[in-house]
Amino acid sequence: MTTAVTTFAVAIRTGTGKGKARVVRRTGLIPAILYGDKHSPTPITIDPQLINAEMNKPGFFTRTFDLVLEGTRIRTICRDLQRHPVSHALLHADFQRIGADSLIHVAVPLHVINEAASPGVKRGGMVNLVEHTIEIVARPTTIPTALEIDVTSMKIGDSLHLSQVKLPEGVRLLHPDPDLTIATIVAPSSIETDESAAGGTTTL
Questions:
Q1: In this predicted structure, what is the pLDDT of residue 100?
Q2: Count of alpha carbons within 13 angstroms of residue 121, beta-carbon side
Q3: What region holds the Large ribosomal subunit protein bL25 L25 domain (predicted)?
Q4: Which of 73, 80, 98, 152 is packed most tightly, with the most Cβ within 10 A?
Q5: pTM of the entire structure?
Q6: Are 9 and 70 a contacting pair, CB within 8 Å?
Q7: Where a domain ends, among 64, 97, 130?
């Protein structure tokens, strides 16, 4: 699942260094850097409120953003955000330029679906998400905001592996081990004892 591209207005930042950065922040903006796609790094400024608003939506670091700089629209992905250690206020942002044919390496969050339908959950078990993100490679237009982990048929003791994750077209996994455990159904202690007596677990 992909989302519409959000646009941020940005401006060229004159001067670098901590002193200049503090001056920028006093204006209500934050310093940022725009780099990549065979271009020299460009210091810019951006309104942190725009970023904070988008952070409330799923998959911020897997989504693409258009930066409008001096009338030019530049497709990017946010690679890093720096925050104040106490106030958590945004201090700096890193945006990477991406061409239409670029292959982007990105960590995509995993999203559990159909939990209520799982036989194991119905028996009181819980979904244990072993991995919370997975590294993928994809073109900008095919980066998903999340990968869905369907636990519909999982019983207590079952495991779901990386090879069973359904990928959107144009998306490739980077992890070398297809048997990597992604999720399990964990039993409450009272059920776990009964299952152990019966013996065995199942792998989907």
A1: 80
A2: 17
A3: 11-95
A4: 98
A5: 0.79
A6: no
A7: 97
Q: Are residues 161 and 125 in the same domain?
A: yes
Q: How confident is the model over 24-40, as pLDDT tens digits?
A: 999 999 999 999 988 99
Q: Is 1 among the domain residues?
A: no
Provide the domain count of the chain. 2
Whole-number Å distance between alpha carbons of 164 and 173: 12
Structure-token pair, residue 33: 């850097």
* Same domain for 116 and 67: no
- State residue 77's pLDDT score: 96
Q: Report, as an integer, the average pLDDT of 122-143.
A: 94
